[in-house]
Amino acid sequence: MKQRRIKEIIQKSFIWLCTFITVAALAWIVIYIIANGFEHLNLDFIFSEYKGGKNGILPMILSTVYVAFLSVIIATPIGIGAALYLVEYAKPGKLLYLVRFATETLAGIPSIIYGLFGFIFFVTILKFSFSLLSGALTLSIMVLPTVIRTTEEALKCVPVSYREGSLALGATKFQTIRGVVLPSAIPGILTAVILSIGRIVGETAAVYLTAGMVTRFPDSIMDSGRTLSVHLYVLAKEGISFEEAFATATILIITVALINLATNKAAGRLKRRYEP
Amino acid sequence: MNNTHIKIATKDLNLFYGDNHAVKNINIRIEEKNVTALIGPSGCGKSTFLKTLNRMNDLIPYVRITGDVYFEDLDVYKDYDIVELRKRIGMVFQKPNPFPMSIYDNVAYGPRIHGIKAKETLDEIVKNSLEKAALWEEVKDRLKQNALGLSGGQQQRLCIARVLAVEPEVILMDEPTSALDPLATLKIEDLVHELRNNYTIIIVTHNMQQAARISDQTAFFLHGEIVEYGATEKIFRVPEDKRTEDYITGRFG
Asked: Which pTM value belongs to this model?
């Protein structure tokens, strides 16, 4: 009896330790960055340009928001469409297997490869040059597998009884998807969007090869621009200023946290609409 | 069966799930504006048979159907557009399955997909349908609330209202009270009694008292076949077949 209890305690402590390490590592990183970055943060840093003696990051914040927004706008509809095909229309067989295999492989490809592809295809062949558009197009391909997989899971969770109820009323398959299936899957689809935004905002390699590194204000999506992550990378790598790097990192963390919070809120609200 | 209009008829109807011969040689004629009960033990093919009538089995892979189903003398599998067919033959399921949206939107869903947009018309249809389903008084003040907040019995009546809203001629009910408590069951039975004046109702049930209470005709299914079909009174009082007698007296099933 005693031995079993000791075993139990050891197992429990081990699991507890694992959890502690995970949380502690995350907390440590966040606290370390914010502690180092916070003292260099001021309104001037956040809201001014990066030229003429100023080292503000407003252009980078704008570029990041543009790129994230554009990528999501491009990737979400395509991803939902593909997921709908896979879940609702595709018949089990070779083709379905092939598409699944392709999306899974795409998910595992390092982002620098996407960057290279974007550089050759969007920047050079399609002559979009280094631009926020090239960056967003590249990133949207990069996050597509995530959107597809997450949406697929959400669609599969919609009870068959909803579909039956709708079809039995004489709805077509498309009406059923639009009227019942998609609305019920919205919270899951929003999760896909959150995950995608996280990856987009945090991406460097695929961005600086396609959207460029210029620190000016982007006037349009055809302008090149530097996102926060790329800015951070340059600041740290070129040894320009570690203070600025930490301050930028702090803003980056806050941005990601805010985006996640906002999307979670939206998901929660939608969920309440579809649940009792 | 004199002078009555035959609404649905089948001819040598067979259904296979892969190798499993689930429905065997069904020949049945179902009268208009009558309640026809399908009884029999679990797995006897009565629900599967029911779903051949509005082609819900089309959703299931590996299903093969031979023979014919006639609805108003036209072949269900050849002459009808499936949307039109299911609009005219509605279905209520075993487990209440309201959509995760408001009570109003649930009832308006059918009319909307069939092209009705005018708000006044929809309001009218929703009110009428809920009244016919004996639910209006309970929900008239909370039409905008989520339907999933209703009790099981209310949900099932909402599903019936949802079917009524598309003005079907036939209503198929697949054990509509098996997930409900006795009181809610009674309400559904009363409702079926009301509806039989205007609709042809085919109801699958496990509950023999229920079949005896609410139906005009009863078909007894066993192992995918119809053993006996006739007036409910006759089936329950003087069954012709020994197996029917054994089943309704509770000797098996």
From this structure: 0.81
